[in-house]
Design goal:
By secondary structure, the chain is mostly beta strands. It is built from 1 helix and 15 strands; from the N terminus they run H-E-E-E-E-E-E-E-E-E-E-E-E-E-E-E. 33% of the residues are buried.
Length: 288
C-alpha cells in the first residue's frame, strides 16, 4: 500500500521531538538532582510565621587516644553534643525509598499551630552499630575533620576526616531547660530499630541535645603519624539537610598538639579541651 504523503513529515517530527526529549533528559542527568527548596527560615518575611530550629555543635570534649580501634593505627576520640537552641524542633520525617534508605522531609512548626513540610534532600540510613544492631539515623548529620594550624594559629588545609556522619537526632539530654518553648519531657525518643518500618520521625526539641560520648562507635579521627598543631573540628549538618534560623553556628573545634597529651596543648591560643559537656537533665539517658 503506498505511503501517505503526510506520513514521512509526521515521522520526522515525532523523531525530532523524541531526540529533543532525550537531550533534555541527558542535560538533567548531567546537572544532577533537582535543587532543594529555598530555606524559609532565612527569609525575613517567611520566618515570622515559623518556629525554626537552630542547631549548635558544642566543642569536642573528652579527647583521648585509642590504639585499639584500628590495629597498627592511632585514633583520637572525642565526644560531641548537637544542641537545638532555636524556636522550634529540628524534625525530619522519613519515607522508605530502598531497603536501607529513606527520603526525608523537614517539618517546620508554625506559630499558632500546624507544620510545613519542605524537601531539603535529607536522607535517613539504617546504620549498623557493631555490638548493638541497626538504627535509623540522619545521614550526614555531622562531620569530623582535622585541619593543620600554622605558627600563628591560622587554619590551613584539611589533613584527615573521621568516619562518623550519621546521628539519630533525639531528645537525649535537657541541656537548656530555660529556653522558651523547651518541653519538660522528651518528645523524640531513642532511635527506631525496625528494618521493616515504612516511616520514621527523628528530631531534637528546643533546649534538648543529642549527645555522643568519646567511646561511641566512629567518634574519632585517625591521627597516625601526624605531628604539630591542629584544629579538631566537629560540624553539625554540613550538607544543610535541616533548615535553620542561623546556619553560621554549626561548627565547633578545639586545638590539639600531636602526638596528643591531655591538658594545655602548647599551641597558639589553645585552652584545654573540655572534659565533658554540661548536662542538666539529671536523668537516665535512653539507649543510642
Amino acid at each position: 500500500m503506498p505511503r501517505s504523503r503526510t506520513t514521512t513529515p509526521l515521522l520526522l517530527i515525532a523523531c525530532l521531538l523524541m531526540a529533543i526529549a532525550g537531550l533534555a533528559g541527558l542535560a538533567r542527568a548531567a546537572a544532577g538532582p533537582l535543587a532543594a527548596a529555598p530555606n524559609p527560615c532565612l527569609d525575613a518575611t517567611a520566618r515570622t510565621q515559623l518556629l525554626c530550629p537552630d542547631l549548635v555543635m558544642r566543642r569536642p570534649f573528652g579527647l583521648r587516644l585509642d590504639p585499639l580501634e584500628r590495629p597498627g593505627r592511632l585514633v583520637l576520640r572525642a565526644g560531641n553534643s548537637i544542641d537545638n537552641v532555636g524556636r522550634g524542633p529540628a524534625e525530619l520525617h522519613g519515607i522508605r525509598s530502598s531497603r536501607h534508605l529513606m527520603r526525608a522531609r523537614q517539618r517546620i512548626h508554625r506559630r499558632g499551630g500546624g507544620r510545613t513540610g519542605i524537601d531539603t534532600r535529607a536522607r535517613l540510613l539504617f546504620k549498623l552499630v557493631p555490638g548493638q544492631g541497626h538504627y535509623w539515623k540522619f545521614l550526614h548529620a555531622a562531620s569530623f575533620e582535622l585541619f593543620r594550624l600554622d605558627s600563628r594559629g591560622r587554619i590551613g588545609r584539611r589533613v584527615r576526616r573521621g568516619p562518623k556522619v550519621s546521628y539519630c537526632l533525639r531528645d537525649l539530654s535537657h541541656t537548656r531547660p530555660g529556653r522558651r518553648g523547651s518541653p519538660v519531657r522528651r518528645i523524640y525518643p531513642a532511635c527506631n530499630r525496625r528494618l521493616g518500618t515504612r516511616r520514621v520521625t527523628l528530631g531534637t526539641s528546643v533546649g534538648w541535645s543529642d549527645v555522643y560520648p568519646p567511646g561511641y562507635h566512629e567518634q574519632w579521627i585517625d591521627v597516625t603519624g601526624l605531628r604539630g598543631c591542629f584544629s579538631y573540628r566537629h560540624t553539625a549538618d554540613p550538607l544543610n539537610g535541616i533548615y535553620e534560623s542561623d546556619e553560621s553556628n554549626n561548627q565547633a573545634s578545639v586545638t590539639v598538639r600531636l602526638p596528643f597529651r591531655r591538658g594545655r596543648q602548647r599551641c597558639p591560643g589553645s585552652p584545654p579541651a573540655p572534659v565533658a559537656p554540661p548536662l542538666s537533665d539529671g536523668g537516665t539517658a535512653p539507649p543510642y
